[in-house]
Design brief:
The complex is a heterodimer of chains A (about 475) and B (about 500). Chain A is an alpha/beta fold. Chain A contains 21 helices and eleven strands. Chain A has a seven-stranded mixed beta sheet with strand order 3-2-1-4-7-10-11. In chain A, helix 3 runs antiparallel to helix 4. The N terminus of chain A is likely disordered. With about 500 residues, chain B is α/β, with parallel strands linked by helices. Chain B has three domains: about 250 residues, no CATH class; about 160 residues, Translation initiation factor eif-2b, domain 2 (Rossmann fold, 3-Layer(aba) Sandwich); about 50 residues, no CATH class. The chains are: A alpha/beta (about 475), B alpha/beta (about 500). Chain B: Pfam families: IF-2B. Chain B: It comes from Paraphaeosphaeria minitans. Chain B: Belongs to the eIF-2B alpha/beta/delta subunits family.
Chain lengths: ~475, ~500
Amino acid sequence: MAQGPVQLAPGLISFLKSLKTTPADPSVEHLTSLLKRRQIRNSRPCAIATTALMLRVVGEFKGRDAAKLVERIRQVGRRLTAAQPREVVVGNIVRRVLGLVREVLDDNTGGDSHTGSDAGHHTPAHHDSMVRPTLSSSISTFSPLRHAAAEPMDASMTSDMSDSSDLHRRPPLLTSHTSYAPTTSAPLVNSLFGLFSQPDDSNASTPTGAASPDGKSAHSLNLERLADLSRSTNIDLKSEVMDGIRELQDELEQSDEQIAGVALEHIHSNEIILTHTASTTVQKFLLSAAKKRKFTVVHAETYPHDNTATHGILLTGRKRETRLDEDDDPWKPLTAAGIPVYVIPDSHVFAIMSRVNKVILATHTVLANGGLVAAAGAHMIAKAAKEHQTPVVVLSGVYKLSPVYPFDIDELIEYGDAGRVVPYEDGEFVDKVDVEHPLYDYVPADLVDLYITNLGGHAPSYLYRIVADHYRTEDITL
Amino acid sequence: MSGPIEGEAVAAPAAPPQAPNDQAIPAAPAKADPKGTKPAEDGASKKLSGADLKKQKQLEKQAKRAQAKATAPAATQQGGSPKEQKQKEQKQSQKKDEARPLPIRRRPSQSGAVPQQQAKKESKRDQKNLGLFFGHLYSQPRQHSMVGASKDVHPAVLALGLQYSSYVICGSTARMVAMLLAFKAVIESYQTPVGTSLARHLTNHHLSPQIDYLRGCRPLSISMGNAIRWLKDLIIKIDPSTPEAEAKRDLVEEIDMFIRERVTAAQKLIRDQAATKILPGDVILTYASSSIVEQTLLQAHKAGVPFTVIVVDSKPLFEGKTLARKLANQGITVRYYLITGASHAVKDASKVFLGAHAMMSNGRLYSRVGTALVSMLARSQSLPVLVLCESVKFTEKVALDSIVGNEVAPADEILSEAERASLLPLELHLPATHPSRNKSDHDKFAAADDAKSGPLDVLKWVEGSDNLHHLQVLYDVTPAEYINMVITEYGSLPPSSVPVVHRLSTNT
């Protein structure tokens, strides 16, 4: 990225700017190329960009067919993940958005949308139970409407609503897509309920997978159901989803603060904490602890990939790439908060580890099995910590938590520019020697003692549960 | 952990004794001048300016003195009584940390000339509280020039010291050999003063200043310590009745013999033995650079064993680069990783060969920093870890961690020139409270010169912020559990046998 506030340099900032004026399809193209060129990299920028794009895609989606919306999101998601499969976060966000769509549908399914496809004379319960026999009971627990409402009553109500919502919905679709969000306040409550009370929800949704472990069939059945539902759907699907995406954006924004909020529970006075690479999350976490406690930070510089960013963050307290609207945000480097910071080369980790009492790692992606992908060097840091019985704490927003299991670890590891290891000026060397520059390390779950996410602290073994809470099994394969 | 032993080490002390004499002295006054203009703009050391001036005067005086000394170097050996010398040395060593003109310093990370910076940095270090980890290691100021060296120091040793401090001669064996060769020259040009005997005077009064000087340039390696102990022992045992010429000849021969037996022959034995451990198809992983590992790999390659090598390397010296280059030039397939990629490198390896700086008596390996990480990862992958180490590097010292005994490296080298340059754009975002931020703002108003804020400013930022420290050491201690085998000239042993071998080798 170029220096200073040159906004035209391709990257997250320029993308977000252009997104305001560009329609969805070219924007998808734009983001794809940015991802491919690594002009947007690292989890947070990717997540922010993807969410913004998703908002745009959903906003521009024309039609009321939920299945088509799902298919559209899926298709965009596939393109984005194909552009840069190792930025797992992109896929995570797409899956979360898909989950939102399904959630909105599910919420409404229980109440009103089961009226038949054409005339509304179908018996919805029958159809539903055919498709998902095991779920009927659990659905009933969270959508009281379903059993409370009598059949004819239900039908009349929905037809009523569909009329009105049609009136509501049609005009905005033809004109602008952003203006009608406030009009749909009633269903919002529903969707929000679904969004942030995951335990209830997921209890209901996980059996889906259990009942039909075969993803494909579940998916096709689901689509069928969606198509069925949405043909007559009268819920304001789009705006609810968009509200959900905005919630997601808020989550992205707040996750650092939420993680930092528990800092004092984990850092006591006079600790020596080792961390590595340049991570806003970790810096904020430490800063928040620094308000009350005195401790010492040892910082491995992650040479040659992230060292510039590391030194930058230590000197100035911020990362250049995430400097998008935070300029008014007065956060400062740790050193300014009176915390002594010792920068060490990565090779010193073992030597220093005997003095360290806690290791705090930043991550790139957290995987469902409790392992994580983090900046190169993380594995040896975690391993050295294990050898010294030093606890390893990983800070990660939930958005980095991915439903992917690391069956093939090498697939997740990106290799970077070898010129940063040995500059290309040294032609003779580069010619003869195979210079490798892995950017990430996979850290197995058994080297991690604790995950701190914006939802709280978790054991690595518990992460699969949080994954189940956030992603639908249908969406795991995009 | 040795660089080129034979070639460079042999050539080194012989060739350059004259050169530094010419270069070092002019550097001193040249340094004093820019410093005079410096304090005004230097926010950090502003308050020191009074003291600075004084220092400067001392420095100039010192430089003059040194110049005078250099014009008539070894000739005036009886110039001062030993007592006087000692006093002078003390005085100088006090000043050493500020007065460091840095004549022919070539550090891997610094290509340009940055002498003033360096001097200031060193003095600043006292104020900065480095006590947390390696504070105890900063007590001894490093010497990077010949200024302030006792005049008894032989030119060959003077040159050698500079080569040590600039890492031109690097690696514990190479340093030891180079030192012994320099001592040979010292002994050859030595004349016992009237009234004393060679056995008494040579060690205490003539060799000691040389050793002190070398120690000031860079802390002595374990092998050097062992060699010095051996040499002193040898000298003391010389029969006072032996004619001086004969005694000197004997000593020189003994030194040659020592090098031949304990280094050359030992290395040959080790390399022969270690090379048999390389099997066809092996992927040998090594860390940084060790002359003995290099020889072993080349030997196996010459024997026609097909194998590949992974070199893992790290800041600050990038020694592995040299090794990788040499091996690749010989036609070996080499892969090169930095330490951050070590966990990937280890996955593909089948054996790990490590060099040593020293083997501790508790079986731990004292070697280039990062070795412990590599062997830890190798062990977690169940790879055999072999340490190749001449018995001259064995020591009776023990260590549990890498913190108690270590050698600090200049911390500002964490940031190479390129890195500093890439950090420059951050200047705008430095916290407002930062002293150098204020300064740079001031500068900008004074003269809009972006070009002026060169890469050196970045170092100033680091220095300027009270809590930010850069820390760099040279060695770490690898636990004995990570080491499967130590190959020495006495055979292949488990690390637990190190003390036994050490006893054997010192008693004979």
